[in-house]
Amino acid sequence: ITAAADAWARGAAGLPKPWQPQKPVLPVEGMRNVLITSALPYVNNVPHLGNIIGCVLSADTFARYCRLRNWNTLYVCGTDEYGTATETKAVEEGLTPQEICNKYNAIHADIYRWFDISFDYFGRTTTPYQTTIAQDIFQRLLARGFLLQDTVEQLQCENCQRFLADRFVEGTCPFCSYEEARGDQCDKCGKLINAVELKNPQCKLCRGIPVVKPTQHLFLDLPKLEERLEPWLEQSWATGDWTANARYITRSWIRDGLKPRCITRDLKWGTPVPLDGFHDKVFYVWFDAPIGYLSITANYTDQWERWWKNPQQ
């Protein structure tokens, strides 16, 4: 309290000079370097006040605080643009997925500018860097034996002549009988669903009745990581600032045993899978989208690895 009173008495002249980072903002030896991201907002809607509060406002507040502390701060964000939600919106509006992304990325950027959100860079995930970095991570996983291939039973619409991704299927929830459950989860009871488990499934595009057919997919072999993950989690729980909910969910996954996780989809709109036999598939959006933080930083600066692969700073 005494120090605060002294600083107040000295006035603004006694404050340290504001730090003016170079452009682009890069880590500086000897300084506190802070990289901030917001959860990437999905591109298929117009953001409203709830999105602002839930997605970008807290990170913006923290970024402003860091700059006031004269910490060397980079704050990046951007729209998440691949996946079935974009394809669904494109069908609704009679546009291509790329046109939908261009339209709503501009709307998002304008709204955040209006709210004066202090991004150093606001990008998007449909860029060449996204493809390059995602495919490189995939190749590293493949080379290290962390991927496996398996046959999956999937719904196919013979009328549309395509396998139906999760959001292109609706039906009755097998758990609570809600009649408008999606092919990935039920919005009424909240349970995760495999599309083939739906009762009375329908194709959202043509309202035809799909049939179950086998298709090949690639999976992250998560059980291989369990031995290395558990001690890391114990250390991170002890030293980090995890919420009670995050701890509970993570512990339940570990307790029940990690399962292989499918990372490919039978879609056209997404990052292509660079592997023979899978060129007609793309990466599942939850494999692809988190890599957007890296690729958006790469679009901001070609020295992006100094932020993302630099634990000493």
Automatic annotation (TrEMBL):
EC number: 6.1.1.10
Compartment(s) where it occurs, according to its Swiss-Prot or TrEMBL record: Cytoplasm
GO cellular component: aminoacyl-tRNA synthetase multienzyme complex; cytosol
Reaction(s) the record says it catalyses: tRNA(Met) + L-methionine + ATP = L-methionyl-tRNA(Met) + AMP + diphosphate
InterPro entries: aa-tRNA-synth_I_CS, Met-tRNA_ligase_1, Met-tRNA_synth, Methionyl/Leucyl_tRNA_Synth, MetRS_core, MetRS_Zn, Rossmann-like_a/b/a_fold
First-level EC class: ligase
All residue ranges annotated as the Methionyl/Leucyl tRNA synthetase domain in the record: 34-311
Pfam families assigned to the protein according to its UniProt record, in alphabetical order: tRNA-synt_1g
PROSITE patterns, sorted: AA_TRNA_LIGASE_I (PS00178)
Family designation: Belongs to the class-I aminoacyl-tRNA synthetase family.
UniProt-recorded name of the protein: Methionine--tRNA ligase, cytoplasmic
Organism encoding this protein: Ibidorhyncha struthersii
